[in-house]
Amino acid sequence: SSRFPEPILHQPIQSLGLSYELTNLALDLGFFCLADLLKMNTRVLLKFPGFTPTHLYEYINFLEERHLGKYIDP
User: 24 and 51 in contact (C-beta within 8 Å)?
Assistant: First the structure.
């Protein structure tokens, strides 16, 4: 979507090198790329079954390391 122009945000989540746990959890919850996750507020993500603060930190750190933290809870 135009909201998230960076290609990495639309790559299959399993291609990004995230942990096995976070990758499989995201897929199980129906999030197939980072853009899908970014559409959700982080407080909402933590309400999903199995989505822990550890997963959230991994996700946020991944984005911040790539200077994409601006998209988290804008």
Answer: no
The string of pLDDT tens digits covering residues 45-74 is 999 999 999 999 999 999 999 999 999 998
Q: Is-contact 68 6, C-beta < 8 A?
A: yes
Amino acid at 11: Q
Q: What is the CA radius of gyration of the chain?
A: 11
Rounded distance between C-alpha atoms, residue 17 and residue 48, angstroms:
22
Farthest-apart Cα atoms in the chain, separation: 30
State how far the Cα of 62 lies from the Cα of 44, in Å rounded to an integer: 19
